[in-house]
Amino acid sequence: MSRSDTPRLLELLRQNPRAAELAAFPFDFDLGRAEHGEEVRLASGAPLTGIAGDDTGGTYFLSGADGGVLYADSDGRAGLIAESVADALELVAGLPGWRDHVRLSPGTAADEVIAAVGAAEADIRASYAPELDAGRGELLAALGLTPPPPAELFARMHRALRRTEPDHVLLLADEGCAHELLDPHPRLSPAETVLAVCRAALDRLRANRGAWREVAFAPVAGARGSGEHDAHAGRRAGVLHAARYDRRAAHLPLLRHLLEQETLCRGRAALGGMGEELHLAVFLVARLRAEEDLHRLYAARCANFDTWCALSDLPLGLSGKGRGEEPRWEPEALEKWVAALDTPEWFGDDPGHEPIETWIALGRRQGHTELARTALIRALDDIGPADTAELPWITDEFTALGDFRQAARAQRLYTRLQDTDPGRRTAYVRLAALERQSGDLDEAGASLRRALATVDSPPGQDQPTLFDVETTPEDQSPDWSDTGVGLDVTEEHLRLAHAAADAGLPALAHRSLTTGTTLLNTLHRPPPTLFHVAQGASLACGDTDSAARCAALGSREEQRIAEFPYALDDDDDQPLLCGRSSHRSRGWCMTGPVMAASPTAEPTHPSRRTTRSN
């Protein structure tokens, strides 16, 4: 029988009462105890099926698509113990005291393992199973299994245990918290794991110039945002970080290529932005101080408006007198600039000083989704009073992974910590968006109600119908419609209405649409996309009249923007680019929210470096 033939082996055990009886006692693999005491799931979302249990309250699960067996005890610990059901049955029969043996170091000598196994089996025989050896032989013969010696079973179990993370992490289904690892032995940290991947990529590029195309700027058609418009941005970031910790003059040609590609990436970014990788690439090239790189450094500064400002201290011999000025080579000044950045706070060469969010983001951007997810879950589970400032970036990273359920868990905790009405309002609106995206529509509606409860008198709450009152700027509440959160809460009501209609929740859909369109009616000069969101929500709810009105108003606003790209803002008579609203600094423009609830867009939170450099 193939070791991967799990269904057949389990069926054989179920159809053989004597074998099933022996598996249950004395080997504690009881098919009748397959129901776990609490609802659990895998963090990865892969299949999880209980197949047996033991008399301590533990459960054996088929975990994932590869047929591995995960064991969860009754104390909140879990680990992959076998690569197949066949391996698991050989383990419980060949090492009946295996639960105690997980505490032994994986490097324990074979003679020590044999001694520990012998002592455990002697105790079992003396305590409750004098016929242990006969039962083992009968069970294995009935199943057609022949286990290897105890030392090999021990080594095989520990190889499986080391694979628990990241693909077999067990969560409490409702809370989302992870079980602790079944064994206490140390693993590689996320930083070590990701850096090893980055170094392997650097080695490959160093050995094969033809592979440089793997880190060349690769535009993604139709992409928005600073991180998703370049398909190779994450891979290039990993190589740059590897080069940061492996500084060799021989890397200069590759570093030049990376700098040129980062410059292209930032120059083509729809929303500009500096990006930590461009700053790092400039640093790594500048530290080698080759005069022929002067124009590369200058081009990096000129990539966009943000890079021009952020790299204003890069010594290029510019007086700032006007356009057309040529850069000049100033090696002494450049050396001082490099020295100021060659510190743990910036681009030092010790990876141990880099914050964990750097490695999680790098792992995610290079496709190591489960590694990033596991590290984030562990970080969230370990949050204490001194760590609450970590919650926003944890939420952002979960969102970037598309794990909206975990993102909502982090945001929920962050929301509870807000002690002002504006803070609570903003936090509840974001929480509602995450709950909607995770499918918890009723919870999203409750969060939006809590957001509105932070406003003394939400504008438009007494207006009964859609667009039946012509509002003027004087009618607006500056605390509401002149802030980004006013747009956000309006849009989120409309998106929730659409989602609820699609989910067959007409009451929630109608309530959310009514509130959303009423709020929309109070906003001064909403962006056209907000009207289009309202149009879609109205159509989903079956309100074709409102949909038509929203479509007309959106088209009218788009036409106004096209015809008058520079209009006067009614509030302060200052020139305002109609293509960008006064909410630009809060992530809004007249063409819609910058991040627009995109699960693949890069998180908007600044790193400690980009905060300082911008």
| Percent of residues in β-strands | 5-15%
What general outline do the C-alpha atoms trace?
A: flat
Number of domains: 3
Number of helices: 25
Question: What portion of residues is helical?
Answer: 40-55%
What low-confidence regions span 5 or more consecutive residues with pLDDT below 50?
A: 460-477, 570-614
Mean pLDDT: 87
User: By helix and strand content, what is the structural category?
Assistant: alpha+beta
**Count of extended strands:** 11
Largest sheet: 5 strands, mixed
Characterization of the model:
- By secondary structure, the chain is α+β, with helices and mostly antiparallel strands.
- The chain folds into three domains: 6-181, no CATH class; 190-353; 462-597, no CATH class.
- It has helices at residues 6-15, 17-24, 85-94, 98-101, 110-127, 132-143, 150-161, 190-207, 233-245, 252-268, 276-286, 294-301, 305-310, 331-341, 356-365, 369-381, 391-401, 404-416, 421-437, 441-453, 484-502, 506-522, 528-540, 544-563, 608-613; strands at residues 40-42, 48-53, 59-63, 68-72, 77-82, 170-172, 180-181, 566-568, 575-577, 588-589, 592-593.
- The protein has a five-stranded mixed sheet. A two-stranded antiparallel sheet has the order 1-6.
- Strand 4 and strand 5 (77-82) form a beta hairpin.
- It is flat, with a radius of gyration of 30 Å.
- It starts with 5 loop residues before the first helix and ends with a helix.
- Mean pLDDT is 87; it is low at 460-477 and 570-614.
